Amino acid sequence: PKYLKRGVPPRDPAHCYLSPNDQSDNLISLIKSIKPDLMTRTPSPPKSLVELTLRSPTVHLIGPANEENPNRSRAILHGRVKFLDQKVKWQRATLSFQGRAVLTHEGLAMAGISGGDEAFSGSEYSQILEICNVDKELIVFDGQSEIEFGLHLPFDLPPTMRTKHGFVEYSLIAKFSAGSFKTARAQSDVIVKRHYLPNGAVVVPTNEMTGCKDWFEWTMEVPRAATFEQGEAVIAMKWSCEKERVEVMTVETRLEQTETIRFKRKNTTTSLRLPPKLLPPAIYTPPSFTDPLDTHFLRIPLIRELTSPHIYSPFIEISHRLVITFKFTNNAQDITMVYPIIVTDLPDAQASIVINGDDAVPIDLGLPEYWGALPKYEDLQEPIVLL
Predict the structure, then answer these.
(1) How far apart are CA 42 and CA 39, in angstroms?
(2) CB 317 within 8 A of CB 166
(3) Exposed, middle or buried, 251 (CB in 10 Å: 0-12/13-18/19+)?
(4) pTM to 2 decimals?
(5) Largest alpha-carbon pair distance within the chain?
(6) CA 311, CA 343: separation in Å to the nearest integer?
(7) How many angstroms separate the CA atoms of 142 and 67, rounded?
């Protein structure tokens, strides 16, 4: 036979047929031998046509978000947009600063409301409120490679925050169009911070209060605000015991943090105060022999890692109270007083903030800040004496 003459070995008919699986394996092996990374290659992302850059993604606001705030000023968000492809002739560029407040299903679950009772039960979140939508159109000239901008923001924005019950977030969106079919989009997150004191040189307002409970009389001066940079809140206090053989043994001071959820149900706004978070107490032991004229300084530590600053948003509020407990000798009944305080932080040293007037004057720390039906700060000045 011819194949014997050519030196080709005879083929076994049993090995001439390959199953479909064997054919697939052979094909894959062949492809991998040609280009090993062909089977694992991922498509490269499309080339970006524009670039959005912010000078600083953080916006600093000073004071409460109300009309009475003497330091009320509008912040400016600076940045630039850069055109990466000079072949594209952009005709229109629009900036949109958007903010929203969101209450999660877990937040409503804390209020004892099932998701089926809400109109938002089919969505990822329970209630969504648009805080702002500020638009600005940029002028695009032919051959321009980049545009710098400054966007004025409202002064009453709630700060960026996030808990398991809700959050507030902001973003800046830049949209570009070149004709009817060529469009581009860029987005950057923006962080809004609200500080209730512009710097450490500000004179913090204090309230002097006096009270009497049976045989115990006191006078104290409590600050209306304290900062994390100070590290502590200091209360100056005088007292006198008019009961025989009874003296102040210790004074326990602690910071109490409370989260309040506000939600709407059937056109009614309801507030729910969650159980407070108790921070580590500070124990003050007065000297053995004290005079009613002696001034005692109670120091409450402010630990940033354990405490959130004061936050007021449409759905979530985080507030703080000072809890002062007097313990007496001879098994006399304890006396506890509760006093509200604003815990805040100071702006960064490099932050650019416009402040009207002199920083060294007392500023207004009045509440409420927005439209919530909460008692004003003046209504909370008197301490609550707990029996």
Answers:
(1) 9
(2) no
(3) buried
(4) 0.74
(5) 131
(6) 9
(7) 43
What DSSP character marks residue 372? -
Q: For the chain, give me the number of helices (H) and strands (E)?
A: 3, 22
Which tens digits make up the pLDDT trace of 54-112?
Answer: 999 999 998 887 777 766 777 899 999 998 888 888 888 999 999 999 988 776 676 56
Domains of the chain: 50-195 (2.60.40.640), 206-386 (2.60.40.640)
Alpha-carbon gap, residue 157 to 134, rounded angstroms: 12
CA distance 144 to 178: 14
Contact by Cβ (8 Å): 224, 342: yes
Residues 6+ apart with CB under 8 A from 300: 232, 233, 234, 235, 253, 254, 255, 282, 322
Residue 24 belongs to what H/E stretch?
helix 20-34
Query: 300-344, pLDDT tens digit by residue?
Result: 999 888 899 999 888 899 999 999 999 999 888 999 999 999 999
Cα–Cα nearest to 168, from 318, 270, 371, 271: 318
Residues forming beta bridges with residue 386, ordered by sequence position: 336
Q: Which of 258, 253, 312 is nearest to 282 (CA)?
A: 253
DSSP 312-354: E-SSEEEEEEEEEEEEESTTPPPEEEEEEEEEE-PPPTT----
